[in-house]
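For concreteness, we quote verbatim a single protein encoded this way:
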Amino acid sequence: MENRILVIGDELFGGKGEAANRFVEAVLCREPSRPVQFSVNVPVAVSLSQIRSRLSADIIGKNAGRIVMGLGLRELNHGGADGASVANLLTSLVTELVNKTQSRLFLLTIPSEMFPIAVNEVEYLNSSIREICELNKNRITLLDFAKFAEVFKEKQMERGKFGRSLFMENGEATSLCCMLLALYLQDKLVEDLKEM
């Protein structure tokens, strides 16, 4: 169904999925008469491998026209995985979705500050996400939240001591980060809906 939107993600959307819920509400507030349905599966409590094994029921079975995915941070935080292995898992998941659905996919990059103990692993994963999107431009849209958050951070630094942080010291998203992600997603999705 073209107007059904599935949002699936991990801690990138906040510890309780705050960004995903705010995103849905922001779209509905901005486009109250648009016939869209949302299915929000955030934060997922399973690994990328488990998501892939349950792909038919959890993602394909939702019959969504658009799938917004923000995955990979959970594996880095809890799975002891590195950027390359997470990128491989995500690539195989995305490839299967491209082959088995007609859905348009939207992949989010992860701000490196969300995994401060190994920034290079996040950067590797983000490079892979950008590559996946570049190779499948007709079906996959890159949502470069990492870059967007970096620009926001630079603007906040111009404010000096009045600037607010997007991340806690441990990398957890602040309320401001969740709001920024929600508004970013809302802008991108509304833009995409209007193009169709």
